[in-house]
Amino acid sequence: MIVKGLDPSSGLPLYLQVERALQQRIDDGEWLPGAQLPTEGELGKVYGVSRVTIRQALARLVDRGMLVREQGRGTFVRDTSLTAGARGVTSFTAELAGLGHRSGSQILEQRVVSASACDLPKEVGLGPADRLLLLRRLRTDSAKPVGVQTALLPLDRFPGLDELDLGGRSLYETLKETYGLVPREALETFTVGGVLAEDAPTLGVEPGAHAFYVERLTFDAHGPFEYVRSVMRGDRYQVRLALRNQEVL
User: Fold this and answer.
1) Minimal CA–CA distance to 48: which of 107, 4, 101?
2) pTM for the whole thing?
3) What is the pLDDT of residues 216-242, one digit of tens each?
4) Measuring CA to CA, how many Å separate 47 from each of 54, 61, 73, 108?
5) Where in the chain does DSSP place strands (E)?
6) How far apart are CA 214 and CA 137, in angstroms?
7) Are 237 and 82 a contacting pair, CB within 8 Å?
């Protein structure tokens, strides 16, 4: 592919011109999702600019979600195929299966805690001495880290849950098969922030990398049964919602 040069007389800063040029090459399909870009030095030679200029352009594309930097590997075109849209009350496993992806999980922590030791929303309705199972897991898509989820479930509702092997299977499938539970609805809150230093190595990113923080309270016919806090890599997880004007329905 012929790479067009930059135009110093255009009045646009060189880093913006490089950003647009790189964006065009991605849009044209020269670099497909998952493809690794040339190094900063190689791109500098192609466009005749300094590494600082290339670094500025790449940083803007990273901030816009077009590219992702992987520690020790390089810069890659972001794979945006994992996009969560409007959905029912499903597990992460079912969500990825519906998108044609292969999910996985690794238990990072599994222990019994008291409600007083957890920052729970008041809707959970538990007393300070009530016991919960804390289940912290790394969630993956085709073996690539996507997020870290920490679920809290009351053991009064699910006696013996802390003694079950919860590795390698959907938690919701276990709850359905063992306790007959059927989720009905959930409330989710999304915020945007940076990955904390303690989660960065697990997720394979630098501290401060863009992330979604998700809080979820899930209900069945008897009330709330699960509270989950998640941190999801911003370069591997997106949320897309369909919005409609009710006045024209």
Assistant:
1) 4
2) 0.63
3) 899 998 899 999 999 999 887 766 655
4) 9, 17, 22, 45
5) 67-70, 74-77, 83-84, 103-114, 131-141, 144-154, 185-194, 210-220, 223-233, 238-239
6) 14
7) yes
